[in-house]
Each structure stands twice: as C-alpha cells, then as structure tokens.
Write a structure and sequence with these properties.
Keywords: DNA-binding. The chain has 207 residues and is an alpha+beta fold. It is built from 7 helices and 11 strands.
C-alpha cells in the first residue's frame, strides 16, 4: 500500500483532512490554522470526504492555497507541497502544514474578524481567548500524553457529571487558576474535552 492509499484508508482524523477542491481561501485557512496550532497535519486536495479520488490540477490549487496561507492566516502558515499521481493518471496534491513554533495563528473570516482554531479529531474547532493565550505563552506544553492525576481527575469527574467549569475544576483538583487553565486547554488540544465558550461562563464536556 503506497502512502496516498494509506492516508485515504485511515480516513480524516486529527492530522488528515480531505478536500475535493479548494475554492474559498477563507474556508481552507481555518483548517491550516487548526493544524499549525495543534500538532501539524496534511490536507489531501483531490479527494472527496468519502475517500474517492477525483484528482486536481495542482497548479490551480496551489494558487488558492498559497493565497490562504499568506493572506488569510496570521501569522502566515508554512505549506509544503507534494504531487501524488495514481496509476489512473489522477493527481492528488498533498499539502503538509507543520506544527508551528509561532502559535497562536488566526484565520480571517471576514474583514477585521480573525479567529483561532485547533484540530480536535477530524474537525477544526474555534478557540477562546483563553486557549489562544495559553498557546502563545507555552506552546511546548502539548507533549504526548500519558495523563497526569489532575487530567485523570477531570475526566473521571466528567464521566459522572455532564460538564465542568474552570472554577469547579480548580476546587476539585486544588489547583491555581493558571494550572487549571493549562490542564483543561491541554485536554482540549489532545481531543479529550470540548470547550463551550458561547455561554455566560465557559464550560467543558467530554468529546
């Protein structure tokens, strides 16, 4: 099995995204930013969501991709291109976005509206200002887990209760606000928790 087949077979996940075509730079910028802010990833252009290979004209796609990376991502996101040809002659453009050393990155939704994203499973999830701040201050903290006792404690709590707030977790784990923030953000980044920040007070649930 070659690399392209393997990536398609594994499906979309926290480090792979399929796109049949790239037509809207503002839309693909969210995916780029989410990979750069998390652990990096690959966009396969010329592949439908179901894994069917349609193929693309790589040069045409590169133009829109580069436009998105340079003008719809702040700071701009690095892209690495590789053209992968199938036996049928169809070409898939593999776009690699490395994990960034300059987090957080923001994607432009419209004029003067820039938002941060992280990759959780196969989705680009919008971040809150709190997540952006932690990414900026301590990007090196997101290392491969095993979970520590505080992380285990919040997951155990959420198996019994529907949601937890920062204040509840601080009390539960007897942690300072800063350490509690870091722990919760780390679990969001690694796909254990979902952050809900549209309410009066942010809260977290299990994914």
């Amino acid at each position: 099995m070659d690399e392209l087949q393997r990536l398609i077979w594994e499906g979309e996940n926290d480090s792979v995204d399929f796109k049949q075509r790239v037509t809207k730079p503002e839309k693909i910028a969210r995916t780029m930013v989410s990979f750069a802010n998390t652990r990096g990833g690959v966009i396969l252009v010329g592949v439908k969501d179901n894994g069917y290979v349609t193929g693309v004209d790589p040069e045409e796609e590169k133009h829109t991709l580069q436009l998105a990376a340079d003008f719809y991502c702040d700071p701009p996101v690095q892209l690495l291109y590789e053209e992968m040809e199938q036996d049928s002659g169809k070409v898939v453009l593999k776009v690699t976005i490395p994990e960034s050393a300059h987090k957080p990155h923001f994607a432009k939704l419209k004029e003067d509206d820039w938002r941060g994203y992280v990759r959780v499973k196969d989705t680009s999830v919008q971040t809150s200002k709190m997540v952006d701040k932690v990414l900026q201050q301590e990007p090196e903290q997101f290392e491969p887990l095993p979970l520590n006792r505080h992380e285990e404690a919040v997951l155990e709590y959420l198996r019994l209760h529907q949601r937890v707030t920062l204040r509840q977790f601080m009390k539960l784990a007897n942690l300072s606000e800063r350490r509690a923030y870091r722990t919760l953000v780390k679990l969001v980044i690694h796909g254990y928790l979902l952050l809900h920040d549209k309410e009066k007070e942010d809260y977290y649930t299990l994914v």
